[in-house]
Amino acid sequence: MLKKELVDRVSNELAMQKQDIGLAVDILLETMAGALEDNRRIELRGYGSFSVRSRKPRSTKNPRTGKIMNIPERKTLHFTMSKSLKEALISETE
């Protein structure tokens, strides 16, 4: 689902203007990004949680050249889905 589709759907559901809903979605996403930049965990009950994790630095070999490359430490985004969302997704596939 694209951001535009989300805005359209919420706008239709609430009978509000798309620009107002678009602004609310932008504020929500900016707030979440800011919290993650500050290494804070975001928990949305019934949906899941987002957190930032660090990957250790490591060495790897370039398969094309055979040269050893050093990959520095980096941060990644981790999502853990809630139990209710996981159960809903599992029941859909069965």
Automatic annotation (TrEMBL):
<dbReference type="GO" id="GO:0030527">
    <property type="term" value="F:structural constituent of chromatin"/>
</dbReference>
<dbReference type="GO" id="GO:0005829">
    <property type="term" value="C:cytosol"/>
</dbReference>
<keyword id="KW-0226">DNA condensation</keyword>
<dbReference type="Pfam" id="PF00216">
    <property type="entry name" value="Bac_DNA_binding"/>
</dbReference>
<dbReference type="InterPro" id="IPR000119">
    <property type="entry name" value="Hist_DNA-bd"/>
</dbReference>
<dbReference type="GO" id="GO:0003677">
    <property type="term" value="F:DNA binding"/>
</dbReference>
<protein>
    <submittedName>
        <fullName>DNA-binding protein HU</fullName>
    </submittedName>
</protein>
<keyword id="KW-0238">DNA-binding</keyword>
<dbReference type="GO" id="GO:0030261">
    <property type="term" value="P:chromosome condensation"/>
</dbReference>
